Amino acid sequence: MSRGAAVVPVLLCLLAAAYGVFVSNLNAACLRCLCFAITGCNVTHGCTKGYCGPFYISRVYWADAGKPVFPEDDPERTGAYQDCAKEYNCASTIVTNYMARFGRDCNRDGITNCDDYAMIHYNGGYSCETSLDNTNFSAKYDVCRPGALAGESE
Ligand SMILES: *[C@@H]1O[C@H](CO)[C@@H](O)[C@H](O)[C@H]1NC(C)=O
Ligand SMILES: *[C@@H]1O[C@H](CO)[C@@H](O)[C@H](O)[C@H]1NC(C)=O
Questions:
Q1: Where is the signal peptide (predicted)?
Q2: How far apart are the C-alpha atoms of 139 and 21, rounded to whole Å?
Q3: Which atom of ligand 1 is nearest to the CA of 40?
Q4: Phi–psi pair at 14, nearest 5 degrees
Q5: pTM for this structure?
Q6: Sorting pLDDT into bands at 50, 70 and 90, what band is 21?
Q7: Which residues approach ligand 1 with their CB closer than 6 A?
Q8: Which residue's CA lies nearest to atom 11 of ligand 2?
């Protein structure tokens, strides 16, 4: 193997980190599955008990994700968090940025994939290791898990 071959993946990781958009194995099917597991992907859910939108995103989660908002919006504007969290694509950006920050092999199976993102989404990024067994979230995640794990990149 040439030295160049080893440099390319490192460059890709640096680029991904710079733009904050690519998270390994967090594909559209995984995002959709997290959404389904947490609220049935109810896009009319709004905000209840401090959680907003189809991904059920709290203000703290949003802040930890870097406060993404709609283009031209201001994170300091009252309602900016709610508006982004309530809309599927903007909320997907919140989740993606959150996973870019906290993504790791929570279940220690040797790969960071949608199973881990599910644990992070449900448990939070600071203590993702708690098993999801016997939760309604887990039961629903299992329904869409096969699609969510298809197309893993590593
Ligand atoms: C979606 O959420 C709204 C508001 O909470 C609720 O009225 C509606 O029944 C939910 N839809 C589904 C399919 O759960
Ligand atoms: C799962 O959902 C059912 C029906 O909504 C509810 O009665 C039950 O308490 C939930 N279980 C857990 C572990 O959240």
A1: 1-20
A2: 28
A3: 14
A4: -65, -45
A5: 0.85
A6: low
A7: 40, 42, 44-46
A8: 136
Tell me which ligand sits closest to the C-alpha of residue 122.
Answer: 2
Nearest to 143 by CA among 16, 6, 64, 29: 29
- pLDDT tens, residue by residue, 103-133: 999 999 999 999 999 999 999 999 999 999 9
DSSP secondary structure of 18-39: HHT---TT--HHHHHHHHHHHH
How far apart are the CA of 152 and the centre of ligand 2, in A?
31
Q: What is the pLDDT of residues 25-34, one digit of tens each?
A: 999 999 999 9
Which atom of ligand 1 lies at the shortest distance from residue 39's CA?
A: 14
DSSP calls for 31-73: HHHHHHHHHSS-TT--EETTEETTTTB-HHHHHHTT----TT-
Q: How far is the CA of 55 from the centre of ligand 1 (A)?
A: 13
Phi, psi of 146, rounded to the nearest 5 degrees: -55, -45
103 phi and psi angles, rounded to 5 deg = -55, 125
Q: Please give the Cα distance from 15 to 34 (Å, whole number).
A: 26
Using CB distances shorter than 6 Å, the residues near ligand 2 are 135-136
Do 29 and 147 touch, CB atoms closer than 8 A?
yes
Nearest listed ligand to the Cα of residue 135: 2
